[in-house]
Amino acid sequence: MNAHEPARTEVLVVGAGPAGMAAAASLSDQGVETMVVDKRAEMMNTSRAAVVHARTLEVLEELGVTGELVARGIRVSKFTVREHNRVLLHIDFDQLPSAHPYTLLVPQDITEQVLLKRLHKAGGQVTRPSEVTALAQDPAGVTVTLATGEQIRAGYVIGADGMHSLVREQAGITFHGDSYPQSFVLADVVLTGDVTDAEVRLYFAPEGVSVLAPLPGGRHRIVATVDDAPPHPDRSQVQALLDARGPRTGSIEVTDLGWSSRFRVHHRLADRYRAGRVFLAGDAAHVHSPAGGQGMNTGIQDALDLARRLGAVLRDGAPDSTLDGYEAERRPVAEEIVAFTDKMTRAATLGSPALRAMRNTAMRTLDWLPAVHRKMALTLSELKTGH
Question: What number is the average pLDDT over the span 101-128?
């Protein structure tokens, strides 16, 4: 190959988040020549997504990383939905039909470390910073141009490059949906008072929904909708959120703030997951409210489904229609989750006192029904759509 010929690979993965690395590790394990490029200069070192649900732990067994993730996280068997001190609904995971009857709380940077180590074990690497600027398809492959002017020739491309996906844009795939008017606060904190490591709490309030979840190392994660959040909320601002939305008795005190951020949330879904030789996975294909902690989970499941199909075509001689099955299988899952989390977020933020009272009465009534508990647990854990 002379200096002007593009580098070649069977599959190019754009984006080295959890979905991208899971896909690349699986493909490399199958003997598929795979390259990963990421525009970030280094891995993120903040925790962001922190929930790994039962179905994701199941599918990650094929990469052999589930045990390490479980060892580095906290197993939680219960979610509760609350309005201040009143529990409106219990969601128990300990009866799930899974080898992992719980939700795992583990920061995303740890999940990415574990997946990167697994990618290295499979012989793969991440090239960074390496930004894709253009894609051009033809019947035999895809030519990818980088910001440096270099080119890569790939048989297939997986766009796992997030909500603002350049791959999706270049492939001409529409990303329909809308944005929530509020911004979201993320914070990792140390708390005292009415807190526990035994459950994840969702607090409903007129001002917005708030999630309080345990993390390893004695910390807790707070996620809260705020009309206009500062870029990096300080300890007093996080405390004010808990005072307004948390328990009225047995208050919670923020004693230390480790990290905080602000982000906006959208509920959007790609019209297609495939355009010829280009595929989407993870946030490039779907984004939604973090209320159920399902975004990263759905993305990892996408990635491993797609990797299995690409391996079947490239190594086992399966027909091209095998790849069409990816969208047919995975897009309905994302469509259901986008709708579910949107309903949950809107129900949590009802402004009318009369509507809130009706909602609370309905939820407390439903809390008496075992079938409702089971359905909610299966939906959140993604086992409902995973088998």
Answer: 94
